[in-house]
Amino acid sequence: MIKKCLFPVAGYGTRFLPATKSMPKEMLPIVNKPLVQYGVEEAIAAGMTTCAMVTGRGKRSIADHFDISFELEHQISGTGKEVYLESIRNVLDKGVFTMVRQREMKGLGHAILTGEALIGSEPFGVVLSDDLCINDGPGVLSQMAELYRQFRCSIVAIQEVPVEEVHKYGVIAGESLKDGIFRVDEMVEKPDAASAPSNLAIIGRYILTPDIFDILRETPPGANGEVQLTDALQTQARQGCVMAYKFSGRRFDCGSVPGFVEATNFVYEHLYSQQ
Ligand code: UTP
Questions:
Q1: Are 130 and 26 in contact (CB under 8 A)?
Q2: Over the stretch 38-77, which tens digit does the pLDDT of each residue have?
Q3: DSSP letter (8 states) at residue 16
Q4: Orientation of helix 35-45 relative to helix 86-94, angle to 10°
Q5: What is the mean pLDDT of the chain?
Q6: Residue 260, pLDDT score
Q7: Could you tell me the residue range of the domain that residue 164 belongs to?
Q8: Less packed terminus of the chain by CB within 10 Å, N or C?
Q9: The whole model's pTM is what?
Q10: What is the Cα 159 distance to its own chain's centre?
Q11: CA distances from 125 to 75, 169, 220, 272 (A)
């Protein structure tokens, strides 16, 4: 039912400099696959076959990745090396890729608003591809799309984090409806441990209803001088229309060096070496 997924991929990736000076963070590979491809595979598996990318200057390799490389196809066609192209060919067969450029990096909320031209007025998924989510059954976005069918409102994926780490995240408070599902009444972006309403942190998977665009247009810059998605979601939450979902699966913060290394080891041990 949800057909589109937005990928904000315009950020500078400063925590990964100098690797990200001329190369997008989202193209960093976890073993042999770029981060953004993991996210796209998750979206397509959830039925969100239109992948809308909010890119920026210096991010052209993302557009190239989701296109045919004619020379490469020609060179290795009919050889034993074709197997290496299997996963990306599969993605290209199933997905449609649309792009818009965010001209100034004014934050995640601003990136989402920039994506309005690609999304229009329908509910949509959002993947922050530096959060890599891996699990055995249906992916996190599939789990959330299922919930959307029940609740018809915005949904944020959450995870319990140690209290001393809440300052890195948006944090929620709300009424627990059933196992792992909360109706959100409060959201705070990057609170300090003392003022955090809980240790339930929002991670990089969302389902958003399209009224978020009008709210974002009216949302002034918040923490770090950036337009924060969490602030706009707080407005939706006041209307009783944001659910938080403690998903099943593992999540790695690949925007940070330790999370990236952890993900690499995990994927190598559990997925790659078992292929
Ligand atoms: P992050 O804050 O994790 O990404 O934003 P960043 O800014 O690239 O990383 P650091 O903190 O400098 O290391 C979450 C997601 O939102 C995108 C980023 O590309 C990332 O996928 N983003 C962020 C945008 O697309 N535009 C922005 O203006 C900000």
A1: yes
A2: 999 999 999 999 999 999 998 999 999 999 999 999 999 8
A3: G
A4: 50
A5: 94
A6: 97
A7: 4-272
A8: C
A9: 0.95
A10: 14
A11: 36, 19, 23, 27
CA distance to 28, 63, 130, 164, 179, per residue, from 257 (Å): 11, 25, 11, 18, 32
- State which of 128, 131, 219, 256 you would mutate to test the pocket of ligand 1, scoring each by most atoms of that ligand within 8 A of its C-beta: 128
Q: How many structural domains does the chain have? A: 1
The total of other beta-carbon atoms located within 10 Å of residue 26's CB is 29
Alpha-carbon distance of 49 to 59, in angstroms, equals 21
For the cut 80, the answer to whether the pLDDT of residue 259 exceeds it is: yes
DSSP state of 271: I
Pocket probe for ligand 1: among 20, 99, 103, 108, the residue whose CB has the most ligand atoms within 8 Å is: 108
CB neighbours of residue 134 within 10 Å: 18
Task: Give the DSSP H or E segment for 38.
Answer: helix 35-45
Residue 144: give its domain's CATH number: 3.90.550.10
Question: Does 109 contact ligand 1 (Cβ within 6 A)?
Answer: no
pLDDT in tens, 209-247: 999 999 999 999 887 888 889 999 999 999 989 999 998
In this structure, the number of other CB atoms found within 10 A of the CB of residue 17 comes to 10
- Output the six-digit token pair for 204: 């990089």
* Nearest CA-CA partner of 171 in 218, 220, 233, 103: 233
Pocket flag, ligand 1, residue 53 (CB < 6 Å): no
